[in-house]
């Protein structure tokens, strides 16, 4: 199966191009630890070439070839990309599983969601034609004003390894819909399907330079992209620490950034909750994608009156999760992405135990899997608010638990974090759910569920979880610049200055 991984080069100006320094990075299947191929490792020299290609595409034929073409024209390409993703869904899903270790069923769903995202932004691209000259109502009758929405320019899109193609779609689709030209830099830990996206764009005839895919290390590609004077915007998804570096680099040229960063999201389970439903949403919110989700609801706050019974439920549900080769039918927990991440997660668990927490369930490698970077679903209790397991993002299948007695205490604990991406409230009381939806400091709140996201709804966080919103109309606005156009319509002189005397 591993031999299906294609050997690709960088994708620049519509062509496959070998890196200037001819370097490559091994591709490791995290579920087997086998090297299954390699990918091109770009450097700053390649970044310059890619940025030049994107800039040339943006200004080609005075912008008429892409940037100022109609939204309907660009929508045709977005729909063609979506259709080809669906045509290749089976292969792309297998490649995603080989590259990331996520269950094949999940990867199939990711491919479908990626195609859906391109289709959604095709529709929004067409609506731009209807908003080409949006009038602005002003009080001065001698002036007329309208607004133009224009593509912001050349944008660098830096994406993570947990949902490689889907996170690329979240950025590439709205950027292309807006008329931007792009340089996509996927994580060096999972770039395979992003290179396949490049091949799809080549196959559908996307104009040269509109999408460039430059793979490689963050220090050698992401950093020069972030500071490049001819990149007009950075859109980044990844860790908060790296987001700070991106923002610092972008500040040197005053370029805008949108950042979707880390999280330490709470899930609150109240005493009136259906315990089985609450248990499933709790484990889904923390253990899906092996917990490698920025919005993972990894802090469980449960009412003390149901805590003992609910934890028993959680253990039963966790034991029932199929942990296996991610290619196996019914697998629901695959490996984590790399040896480094595997060791980092285990260190968090060890540290929590050393700080006085109790490993209630899991905490190590599944006994039946001797190979691959697998970690059991882990539930940790007796957690203090000063512990690292409470405060820091683990990015693994690790749930920490605290109890509460009152709503005020629950809210204080929920907001006791530097992050603010997501939060879930599980209760049969709709008024309580709404109170918490308003009071929790996060960009997304789920009522009686955890983790659903939709093309049409905004996604993003507060505090150290980022800046800006992706998806929906808000995702498109990320890549548009607003221009005011005002006309003086009176035949009379403006009259601020006295006219000069005629000679």
Structure description:
The chain is an alpha/beta fold and 503 residues long. The protein is 38% helix and 20% strand. The strands form six sheets. Strands 14-15-16-13-12-18-19 form a seven-stranded mixed β-sheet, with helices on both faces. Strands 9-8-7-10-11-21 form a six-stranded mixed β-sheet, sandwiched between helices. Strands 5-6-22 form a three-stranded antiparallel β-sheet, with no helix packed on it. Strand 1 (10-12) and strand 2 form a beta hairpin. The mean pLDDT is 97.
Task: Considering the chains and any ligands shown, give keywords for the structure.
single chain, 503 residues, alpha/beta, 7-stranded mixed beta sheet, 6-stranded mixed beta sheet, 15 helices, 22 strands, globular
Note the gap between the termini. 91 Å
Radius of gyration: 25 Å
The best one-word shape is: globular
Largest sheet: 7 strands, mixed
Helix-strand makeup class: alpha/beta
Count of discrete alpha- or pi-helical segments spanning 4 or more residues: 15
On the 0 to 100 scale, the average pLDDT is 97
Q: What is the number of E strands?
A: 22
Helical content stands at 25-40%
**Spatial order of the strands forming the largest sheet:** 14-15-16-13-12-18-19
User: What are the low-pLDDT stretches, counting only 5+ consecutive residues below 50?
Assistant: none
Range of strand content:
15-25%
